[in-house]
Amino acid sequence: MPYVVPLSGGDITSFNVHNGFPEALVRGFRSSFLTEYDYNNLTQCENLDDVRLNLQETDYDQFLSSQTKVTPALIQEKATTKLVKEFNYLKAQAQEPLVTFMEYIQYEYMIENVMLLLKGTLSGRNVEELIAQCHPLGLFAPSTMKLIPMFEASPKGYMDLYQTVLIDTPIGDYFSRFLEEHKPSGHDSAGGDDANIVRNVLEEVEIEIIKNSLMKLYLEDFHRFCKKVGGDTAIVMCELLEARADRNAINITLNSFNGPLNEPHMRSTDRRRLYPAIGQLYPEATSDFTDVSDEAALAAVLEPYPVYREIWAVHMNESFGNKSIDDAFYERDVEMLELSFEGQMHFAPFYAYIKLKEQEIRNLVWISECIVQRQRDEINKFIPLFTDSAPWKVARRAAR
Amino acid sequence: MVGTNLTQVLCDSDFCNTGWPTILTHLSPFGWASMGIAFTLSLSIVGAAWGIFVTGSSIMGAAIKAPRIRSKNLVSVIFCEATAIYGVIMAIILMGKMEDPPASDKIEVYEWTTAYFAGYALFTAGIGVGLTNLASGVSVGIAGSSCALADAQNGSLFVKILIVEIFASALGIFGIIVGIIQSNMAAFPTPP
Question: Quick check: A350 contacting B, CB < 8 Å?
Fold first, then answer.
């Protein structure tokens, strides 16, 4: 009898059938985050060997034991390797639809890797070096990885790149949709035209815009998938993804002020195409963004949204409070991700675990860099996780 | 058959139905009683099994990073198992009330009223116990799963969440108390 796994994760009575074990695993991993006590010890270290010793007491254990010389880059690489091992272990224990959910988490890193490889090849760097720099969570088949940097800048080369490489990757769907959007009107899809379109797009459109467009399509697709899974997963994950989409929209607008995207005719076509079709700011605020060309106008559009008004206030007070808009967004993200662990029997802890562990790795790298460069005053500027008494949490509670 | 105040007879055979009530009265009380026994056993076991798999998978996963929770949290599994035991106890009690049916030549003199009452009482006692144990088992299982995960993060939470489980398993006890009282009144007459 064919075994049909239901698409939904299940409600509280049936979730544990397929997903009880992986969920319990990821909650076990949650207890392995560095605590306030660990961060205290780390910030008082004199050099990186002390850091290594202190990390041996934590869940990181012996991850640096075979290395003679410790550098911040090495810490980042080894910590990421540990995270990827844990992720792959979780994925091996998972069943549908959790497996597809975890693959969606990986697509983001695949997009980053493909962009890195394309950018690197266009500026003529070495294939091996580029592959070594790719994020390990976003690797696809090694043969595909090797093929991307090897395309030639000829029509046939672009065609090959598109048909054999980009389409076959799991994110190929996003590429084809992206190219559909950028097809100049009046072209129909004859074979030769496709190659020209690919070449035009890759040559003329900036890599950053390609990346933002792919991220937009990815977020919308992930959002749709979570809605299909339904239940608590849909409720929590859709909120997390919408927060991310809003963050992207605001950042794209903010970063475009000094660039070509700020021209009036570009705003309503090119820049508007980059805003994801999910989130609090969609559709009203994102269509208002077409009239925004400076910070004052942006502040006016964000006025009706209390969360973004607060974050914008942080940006306005940047010189006083010493916090940038990125820090404000990070803090909001971390708060939401920590809260997603609160409910049981949904998939959001898997997503939150990856994101929070990455934040922890960023914290570790920040602390190591500060130690190496002897910048003791800056060393406390990391965001500790799962600690109620962290200064940024106290400040947020006081502000409410 | 039973009763003589039948309404208009529409056909001559002995096996005709004369209305909807005959659907109920033509089901033998021994059938009602046996189904009651089957339901009490099977529904209780479905509830217990459901609870055990819900809590068991969480205990296994959580015990990987926090091995200390292994033995303590088996209490949740024991609570679930208790609902299955209630079902078995009730089934045995109900089976004790069963008697042989009358021989075919003694059907007229058998006390069918008492037999019907016994049949209905055993059936509903069985269904009552079975459904309450089903609910209780699922409830204990879900609470036990949360208990294991919380205990893995913070050991002091175990006893507090156990109280939730105790209340959940009390539901099964309510069922079996009512079932025993109800089945007490039931007694099949001895076959003549």
Answer: no
